[in-house]
Amino acid sequence: MTLDSSLNQSVFILVISSIVAIGYNTIRSDSLDLIYIKPDGAGVSKLDSLLATETILLEPVMIDRELAKKMYDLGILFIDAREMEEYNESHITGAILEPAVSGELTKVSPPDKPLITYCSGGHCDLSFELAVELMEEYNYEKVFVYEGGLPDWEEAGYPVDRSK
Amino acid sequence: MGRSRISGGQVKMNLLQNKWIVLIFRLTLGAMFIYASLDKINDPITFSSGIRAYQIVPFGFENSLAIILPWLELLTGIGLVIGVMVDGAALISMGLLVVFIIAISSAILRGFNIECGCGLKEGEIVGAQKLLENTIFFLMGLCIINRASPKYEFFPKSD
Fold first, then answer.
1. Chain B residues with beta carbon closer than 8 angstroms to that of A6
2. pTM: predicted TM-score of the whole model, two decimal places
3. Are A29 and A82 contained in the same domain?
4. Where would I find the beta strands (DSSP E) of chain A?
5. Does the N-terminal or the C-terminal CB of chain B have fewer CB atoms within 10 Å?
């Protein structure tokens, strides 16, 4: 290979740069891995960004089973938007019933804490309506709607309370 | 009869191929690349996260790019300044600038308000000004590669 043509020269410069760059990276104390690996799975980083204090939600955010479970594991309060009879029959373990919202909820969970609402999944709108109400009328900052609701939760085999 | 007429366009082309103009372009473009490379070589971790902000590089290649690109800029810049493999260095400069222009445009089009990560000034946000700068640098590269007669070049040796 002669170094007369501009293309050959560019390839030469590129090869030399790469060798020097990788060599220098290998010997330096704070060397980088050649391939960047995300610190955690994508779901976790989405969870972190949703829950970050800098994140401002303008309306409730729909979440899937995976995110709902991660938030559950973090101890975030679940609110059952269905009727009392349905709640008494079975609900997500630790979840409280919607009527508690009428004034009492702020004592259990202040408006700066995130909440998750759910109902019977599918075509049920109660959880979304409740979430909007919580954000608009009770000034809750972060309300998430677990789209799949109780049927999806049960299907995954996650904790359900049937004691009442 | 027989008198040669020089059009305005030719005058401009001749001016841009003037050996002094080309030398100034070489020094400017070269110095810019050298300067831009130094911070990135010093801190590839910051540069890698700067690249990541563009969300354009697949398969985690941000790190490889953050390691190699600054050295490529440095050697290209040195080549332009001291006159070694000027053709190749000019070609690489133009290639890099096209990549930068595409990356910045795509960030603007997607509404990203991210730092340029260009290494020239800290905290510069992508925008029309960066596009203009890069376009001017690209045109300098074009003039260098189209220069009429090489001057002050040591390899390959100029007249």
1. 87-88, 90-91, 145
2. 0.62
3. no
4. 61-63, 77-80, 91-92, 96-97, 115-118, 143-146, 160-161
5. N
